[in-house]
Amino acid sequence: AGVEPVEAQYWADFTAGQLGSALQFSEMGLYRAKCQLIEQLAGLTAQTVLESAASITAWSKGYAGSYLKAHPGRSQAQATRLGYECILQMIAHAFHHALRISADPNQAWTCPDQTAAISSLARRYDPWACSQAIRATWRAQTTLTHNVNPALIFEALMLDYLDYAHSVSKMGITDERPVCRDIAKRLRKQYLCRKIRNTTPKTPRLRLR
Q: What confidence tens digit (pLDDT) does each residue in 117-148 have?
């Protein structure tokens, strides 16, 4: 299908071998955006939280544009929502691989792509932190269905990732972590209802329809 081997390997892993879905994702041109996002997460700091959150919004809108070309009968809102879900699932997928490496660093784990960035995530987040990051990502996806401002959801999510990092010294932001935790909590208190915050979401899979 004219796809580079590394990209094909990633989509095969991301879609669990579903060829049709892998081809559709590839045709939407999301791979480069995904790589940039994972690189941003690997080097995430308090100074880049807003930039990373804005990137999710921008790339989701790009997904929506590609999706609407293939599905002209769908609404812009629906396409954008699918874009948000897709990007969030890519993030959860990256933390899943980081979790495997962090849980057993002596094992020769292989990643579908971006080995350096995923290994960087594994060094910054221990297994508990990776699992919490994955839960926070699914929680953000669930919150999208409650008409909460997406920009606030993604900003709070980035701050949560910083809070979950297992080693403050390795992150090099010794004085920022408490601030990040406080900001994230205040954002959730202001904009997310308690029922949503205390719900443990299931892990939905994005289906292209």
A: 999 999 899 899 999 999 999 999 999 888 78
Q: Residue 21: CB partners within 8 Å, gap ≥ 6?
A: 11, 15, 207, 208
Which of these, 130, 188, 131, lies nearest to 157 by C-alpha position?
A: 188
CA dihedral 164, 165, 171, 174 (to 10 degrees): 50
What does the block give as tokens for 153? 């959801």
Nearest to 9 by CA among 146, 122, 149, 110: 110
Could you please report the per-residue DSSP string of 114-132? Answer: -HHHHHHHHHHS-HHHHHH
Q: Give residue-wise pLDDT tens across range 80-122.
A: 888 899 999 999 999 999 999 988 877 777 788 888 999 999 9
d(CA 154, CA 141): 10
CB 10 within 8 A of CB 118: no
> At a CB cut-off of 8 Å and minimum separation 6, what does 84 contact?
56, 60, 141, 144, 150
Rounded to two decimals, the pTM is 0.77
Tokens for 86, please give them: 């897709």
